[in-house]
Specification:
Strands 2-1-3-4-5 form a 5-stranded parallel beta sheet, sandwiched between helices. The termini are far apart. It has 10 helices and 5 strands; from the N terminus they run E-H-E-H-E-H-E-H-E-H-H-H-H-H-H. It has helices at 11-22, 36-43, 62-70, 87-96, 108-121, 127-138, 148-158, 163-170, 174-188, 193-203, and strands spanning 2-7, 27-33, 50-53, 77-82, 100-103. Helix 7 (148-158) crosses helix 10 (193-203).
Length: 208
């Protein structure tokens, strides 16, 4: 059985998914959440093979959830199910850690195909998104390697967090956060945080 958890703040849509997937004898719904915070708490109590995730949710949105799941010791396969369909958005969710993407108007067959692919291979790329993914892989890399932790710091800076707030969110000392910031600026040959945010948006390092 493929164990599936669902997070979406639209109750009717979420319960519709539960009803739809419950009719498949290969799938077991292990829980559902109304927002990202509830989902994180749920995944602390149950094990899920695949998480179906909305992006726009209160308290803790999908991007925050993806960042959190990347830090968890166990690998969680995430299928982002959303109405957003722009190439930049799709690129951003994969960069944030999503394992797969489907528009919310996809049919049952596509949804089941995506869940099974995630369960068996850990990834799902539909023909519609494959070109975007390939372009992402072929994109020019950064002039100097930016670590995953440094990318987290860049995102939190872009979100308007202070050094103290970033330290609290990443469980680091303020000295370490400031050291990360200075190292990033040196690596990218930038003068300040404003230039860093502008550069990161241009390179697709962060999501807005």
């Amino acid at each position: 059985m493929i164990q599936v958890a669902i997070a979406d703040d639209h109750t009717m849509f979420r319960e519709g998914l539960v009803s739809l997937l419950s009719n498949d004898d290969k799938i077991s719904i292990v829980g559902q959440a109304n927002n990202g915070k509830e989902l994180v708490e749920l995944l602390g109590a149950v094990s899920a093979d695949v998480v179906i995730l909305d992006i726009e949710m209160p308290e803790m949105d999908g991007f925050e959830v993806l960042r959190h799941l990347k830090r968890m010791p166990m690998a969680v396969r995430t299928l982002v199910l959303t109405m957003h369909s722009s190439p930049q958005f799709i690129k951003n969710i994969f960069m944030a850690g999503a394992s797969g993407y489907l528009p919310k108007d996809a049919g049952k067959t596509k949804l089941l195909e995506a869940i099974e692919s995630l369960y068996l291979t850990g990834r799902y790329h539909s023909p519609e998104t494959m070109n975007i993914v390939m372009d992402l892989l072929k994109e020019d890399t950064l002039p100097t390697a930016i670590s995953p932790r440094e990318k987290e710091v860049i995102q939190l800076i872009a979100d308007g967090n202070t050094t103290h707030e970033i330290a609290e969110k990443l469980y680091l000392s303020k000295y370490t956060v400031e050291s990360h910031r200075k190292n990033i600026l040196l690596k990218l040959d930038l003068k300040n945080s404003a230039a860093l945010v502008k550069y990161a948006i241009h390179k697709g390092l962060i999501y807005q």
